[in-house]
Specification:
Active site: 254
Number of strands: 8
Oligomer: single chain
Enzyme class: transferase
Number of helices: 16
Bound molecules: phosphoenolpyruvate, magnesium ion
GO molecular function, one term: kinase activity
Shape: globular
Helix content: 40-55%
Protein name: Phosphoenolpyruvate-protein phosphotransferase
Subcellular location: Cytoplasm
Strand content: 5-15%
Structural class: alpha/beta
Strand order of the largest sheet: 1-2-3-4-5-6-7-8
Order of helices and strands: HEHEHHEHHEHEHHEHHEHEHHHH
Length: 323
């Protein structure tokens, strides 16, 4: 089986009818890029920048960050690299920020919420990213966006820093796409409104499932409620993809679900454009997609969307795809 996967390493991902979909990887550090290349990744769909900030006693400098971002972009050449701005809080703490303990950290002061209030931290990261932008195909993505206003504020800060850099004589790419993670139900529900203003969506199902089902993604006691194939999730994901396409934008997914062999046929049928997963899942996924007809899967869409339970969805896909 490994041999069959290896044959597809340097090939683009194609469905049975020959349509291209993009298979990209999730990374946490510049060192992870080697694995992406060795596994035939067509780009980076999620660079989690938190690791630059964690396991340290102080904030990383602009220069440290610039080096890390530039290294990833250099290594990936002209392939797309989606960098997510700082997503700290929730389960990921930064002791040196000295933030007060919260009763519900996953519903609290995290990610973009923190970045908009501590815009000094945010601006430093954005400057590092903008300076690195000329080294490759950079796309910038904001995490945990719950309202259009948050996106507008974050984008305005980004554009301010871009203007400052240009006025200082620093070169900045003018091709940078600006997108958001869709991982909060409020955003998935009115994706149509967001789609008019963003360049792309990346659906973060790890959080979207926990927030939709109100089931902590780390809590074993309620893990039975953490249901990727629940029709509520399928409907939300579909809404996001349709909204993107209606506005001529692209929609990806960077949660664990994007690399799951039951979810892949569902997502393909819904028209997902980009699948971002751990590097080691790329070749198995490419092998699976080669055998899948997107047209056939798309014809089951209405049926899937109106199913009643996660079990029904799973069983249906298992039957249709011989799993
Ligand atoms: C997600 O929420 O699906 C996601 C990709 O982000 P993280 O797992 O880092 O929260
Ligand atoms: Mg998340």
């Amino acid at each position: 089986q490994k041999q069959e996967w290896a044959k597809l390493k340097d090939e683009p991902t194609k469905t049975a009818e020959g349509e291209h979909v993009e298979l990209v990887a999730n990374i946490g550090t510049p060192e992870d890029v080697e694995g992406v290349i060795n596994n035939g990744g067509e780009g980076v769909g999620l660079y989690r920048t938190e690791f630059l900030y964690m396991g340290k006693s102080e904030l990383p400098t602009e220069e440290e960050q610039y080096k890390a971002y530039k290294s990833v972009l250099d290594q990936m050449g002209d392939k797309p690299v989606v960098v997510r701005t700082l997503d700290i809080g929730g389960d990921k703490e930064l002791s040196y920020l000295d933030l007060p303990k919260e009763l519900n950290p996953f519903l609290g002061f995290r990610a973009i919420r923190l970045c908009l209030e501590r815009d000094d931290i945010f601006r430093t990261q954005l400057r590092a990213l903008l300076r690195a932008s000329t080294s490759g195909n950079l796309k910038i993505m904001f995490p945990m966006i719950a309202t259009l206003d948050e996106f507008r504020q974050a984008k305005a800060i980004l554009l301010e820093e871009k203007d400052k850099l240009i006025n200082e004589g620093t070169e900045v790419s003018d091709q940078i796409e600006i997108g958001i993670m869709v991982e909060i139900p409020s955003t998935a529900v009115i994706a149509r409104q967001f789609a008019k203003e963003v360049d792309f969506f990346s659906i973060g199902t790890n959080d979207l499932i926990q927030y939709t089902m109100a089931a902590d993604r780390m809590n074993e006691r309620v893990s039975y409620l953490y249901q990727p194939y629940n029709p509520s999730i399928i409907n939300l994901v579909n809404n996001v993809i349709e909204a993107a396409h209606a506005e001529g934008k692209w929609a990806g997914m960077c949660g664990e679900m994007a690399g799951d062999s039951i979810a892949i046929p569902i997502l393909l049928g819904l028209g997902l454009d980009e699948f971002s997963m751990s590097a080691t899942s790329i070749l198995p996924a490419r092998t699976q997609i080669k055998e899948l007809s997107k047209q056939d899967l798309a014809s089951f869409k209405d049926k899937l969307l109106s199913m009643n339970t996660a079990e029904e969805v799973e069983q249906f896909i298992r039957e249709k795809t011989n799993q």
